[in-house]
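call fold(seq) -> tokens
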Amino acid sequence: MESLNQAVNDLHSAFVGAAAQELELNILFERFWIDAIRYGITPDDVRLCVKARIRFNLTSTMKRSLSLRFLIGSDDGLAALMSEAAEARAAMRVKVLDKGKREVLRATGRSDEVKPSDARPVGDVIEQMRKAIQ
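ret:
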């Protein structure tokens, strides 16, 4: 089955691709995906969440469900999907040095800690500008 709503098809394709499943779209799943669209969930959110759950399931004794009924079949599931996608995006922003670079830095007596950026909050910059003109 294919939905008349292209956004539903895109979300379902993202799920099927990320989960590596052959799962036909049906009327119930279509309704779930329409609810997900109302929540503002994107295909990228679905991919990130599913991939994160797969990684978690591979490394943990506890398991997170990949069933659409639990993933998007309720308000709790949709909220969890959004939260897990946000966590995955945050983890992608963390700078991590690869193993080889860390070994070289340690061998040459340098720190292998990732230095935080020199960015300052905008509020501090504006406050400095206000003080400068007074």
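Helices lie at 6-19, 27-39, 43-59, 68-71, 75-93, 99-107, 122-133.
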